[in-house]
Amino acid sequence: MAKKLMKGNEAIGEAAVQAGCRHYFAYPITPQTEVAEYLVRRMPEVDGVFLQAESEVAASNMLFGASAAGVRTFTSSSSPGISLMAESISYIAGAQLPVVYVNIMRGGPGLGGILPAQSDYFQATKGGGHGDYHLLVLAPSTVQEAVDHVILAFELAEKYRNPVMVLGDGMIGQMMEPVQFPAEAVTEPPDRPWATVGMKNRPQNLIRSLFLNADELEANNLELRAKYDLMERDEVRFEFYHADEEMDVMVVAYGTMARIAKTAIDALRADGVKVGLVRPISLYPFPKRAVREAAGRAKAVLVVELSTGQMVEDVEWAAPEGVPIHFFGKVGGNIPPPEDISEEISKVLGGKATPRGLYGRVEEAS
Amino acid sequence: MTAATIFGTPESLTDRVTHYCPGCTHGIIHRLVAESLDELGLRETTVGIAPVGCAVLAYHYFACDFQEAPHGRAPALATGAKRARPDLTVFTYQGDGDLASIGTAELIHAANRGEKFTIIFVNNAIYGMTGGQMAPTTMPGQVTSTSPAGRDVDQVGYPLRVAELIATLRTPSYVERVSVHTPHHIINAKRAVRQAFEYQKAGRCFSLVEVLSTCPTNWGLTPLESLKWVEETMLPYYPLGLKKSPDDEV
Amino acid sequence: MTLDVMFAGFGGQGIMLIGQMVAYAGMGEGKQVSWLPSYGPEMRGGTAYCSVVVSDNPIGSPVNRNPSCCVVMNRPSLEKFAPKVKKGGLLVVNSSLIPVTSEREDIDELLVPCNDLAMELGTAKAANMVVLGAFVGRTQVVKLESLDLLVEKQFAKKPKFIPLNKEALRVGIERGKAEAS
């Protein structure tokens, strides 16, 4: 298939179709509504189902019913909508159903705004819903990567029987870039012997997250934990951008911020500044070891996010003791141009920035 | 000479003893659903959706595939399952807290879209599983743990008549209210439940059967008094009968 | 080579379209491209703008504080974006609708009466093609043939508009080349 210039949201819709998904349930919310507007036309072409739900609460529960009935299914939404889905995401994780969520983040809290933000990092990686569970979270940095991540998300959801979230932002959703889809689309239905498709000549298939017996619930919790352990071993994804060498400043950023940081890094490196980037691609599992290893080669770390500081907590946790950790964030939908990041890096280099002071790092570093 | 079985457990029920309280009519309603599935040959293609409430464990008692929904969301799960596999027979089994309170949005919109599944709505005018709190269906003046002075309609409004509410929707559907407090009413209830599954089997329409039920434990009555309470208190407010038929003019 | 440009005007002037045409043409010529629109409430207010990057290398940031090129089709856009153009950069101004200039001396400012030139061809609607032509004539960022192909695609259902739009591109390109300083 030749390259096509596509808007991120439309490319996400097509990627789901290419991944064999034929069931999309959603509720409109800016800045991702084009996914629905694309799929309402596209799904009938592949005998698929498009249904506009009455709310995000209902949409996510439709995913529950459809996934339990054995089909690939996904939804797309944006921050406040994901909050409404949080209840069912918890149930879906507990019931071990493969479902794909796309969150094209906007600024919050509350109704917030509609411009790009990365302020749902905590919600996506640390919970959102109640209970002991994790989403597997992928953070694309380009429209092509959004396509690749959606396709990968369906594979990983199936592999782990776990909900997977692709976490983008308004910029990824609204931007047009060339994309290439895989030569061959997935066509065969998923193999789900556990699905509820009618009990014929076999014992009952039951999809539930309720275990009133303490030992049974503990067993389910441990089963989930075992999956997360496997994910933490096998599904860590990241990119080093000049981060496998000695660095005066190591930048950590994901998604949209990472690509903007790259432009800043290119400009500084052209001037001989030793600066590199670690880009987490899987946010859960977080690339702890990669960050730790790379930070060991850096004199200072600068975390850049479209939030007031969320992923930076994971970086602090992962980085070796003694490396000062700085943070630069823009919020509200303001996107820092590369020049802002360059200036921030220069401040760190010039000793004009104050590192975050958690865990006594400031004292130890000085 | 072998004895002919003239009465036994429907194939669509398991042998498991239910956890329902003495005098509760859930067991009867389970049986009516199971008999209907048996008679229509639907058991092997059926997926039930359990609610949150006393019937949360319904999946232990039905011999068919089951999903266990978040509170009130069963119609959304049923929508997903039925849209994914239209050949399945999908039913939700929901109480009045689940369906008439926290799940009203999912109920109304599934009905309004004309989703072709069946809802068995069990109305006993109280929250059972959580221990007898006021429901939207609780009768005026009825004492519950969260309406200790009796339901005050000036403060919390009148009981919700779900069957009538859904019947106002223009989308064709089958809606009937029945009761199971006498053998005569049980026979009639069976006809209605079976009718709902027939409409689903024919791919015809959304169907909802509201079944008036008892809760002796939380009503503070004996089983016999409970049956009488249904007759004397609930029936006048919740009139039985067909509320809407797919044959009605749109 | 990396070129970034911001196209700005009011809704209905075909701003988004000409931005996309640059991106499509660049992609067709084997380059890396990105197109980022403004979205949200400001869209409803009537102004429309988009940022396009065309590069030989993978594109990092799709926006810059100071774009190297800016194409403005109405006065509010000039007032908002002209001061941001990078020193030594290019500003293309639709002088039919903008009676003032940026008054900057550190940039290349190209004044093109897009609406008037388009009217001479038969319709002011083609003003966007004139300005696109002028921008491309000046920067050579993509080839005229690539744009011609896109015009043919864009107006496939209304083929009678194809020659007019192609002509508008050429008129623009002449302006872009002729007035290069």
Number of separate strands of chain B: 7
Beta-strand share of residues of chain A: 15-25%
Write the CATH fold name of chain B. Rossmann fold
Low-confidence runs of at least 5 consecutive residues of chain A: none
Second-tier CATH architecture of chain B? 3-Layer(aba) Sandwich
Count of extended strands of chain A: 15
Identify the most extensive interface between protein chains: A-B, 38 and 33 residues
- Mean pLDDT across all residues of chain B, rounded? 97
CATH class of the largest domain in chain A: Alpha Beta
Key structural traits:
heterotrimer, A: Rossmann fold, Rossmann fold, 7-stranded mixed β-sheet, globular, B: 250 residues, alpha/beta, 9 helices, 7 strands
What does this structure look like?
- Chain A has 366 residues and is an alpha/beta fold.
- Chain A has helices spanning 8-18, 33-45, 56-68, 79-94, 121-126, 143-160, 170-174, 214-234, 255-270, 288-295, 311-318, 338-349, 361-365, and strands spanning 4-7, 23-26, 49-52, 73-77, 100-105, 136-138, 164-169, 176-179, 206-207, 238-241, 249-252, 275-280, 282-284, 301-305, 325-329.
- In chain A, the strands form 3 sheets. A 7-stranded mixed beta sheet of chain A has the order 3-2-4-5-7-6-13, sandwiched between helices.
- In chain A, α6 (143-160) links the parallel β6 (136-138) and β7.
- Chain A is globular and about 70 Å long.
- With 250 residues, chain B is α/β, with parallel strands linked by helices.
- Chain B has one domain: Rossmann fold (3-Layer(aba) Sandwich), CATH 3.40.50.
- Chain B is built from 9 helices and 7 strands.
- Chain B has helices at 26-39, 74-84, 96-102, 104-113, 153-156, 162-167, 183-201, 216-219, 223-237; strands at 46-50, 65-68, 89-95, 118-123, 173-179, 206-212, 241-244.
- Chain B has a 7-stranded mixed beta sheet with strand order 2-1-3-4-6-5-7, with helices on both faces.
- The longest helix of chain B has 19 residues, at 183-201.
- Chain B is globular and about 55 Å long.
- The mean pLDDT of chain B is 97.
- The mean pLDDT of chain C is 93.
- In chain C, α5 (127-139) crosses α7.
- Chain C contains 7 helices and 6 strands; from the N terminus they run βαβαββαββαααα.
- With 181 residues, chain C is an alpha/beta fold.
- In chain C, strands 2-3-1-4-5-6 form a 6-stranded mixed beta sheet, sandwiched between helices.
- In chain C, β4 (69-72), α3 and β5 form a beta-alpha-beta unit.
- Chains in contact: A-B, A-C.
- The interface between A and B is large, with 38 and 33 residues.
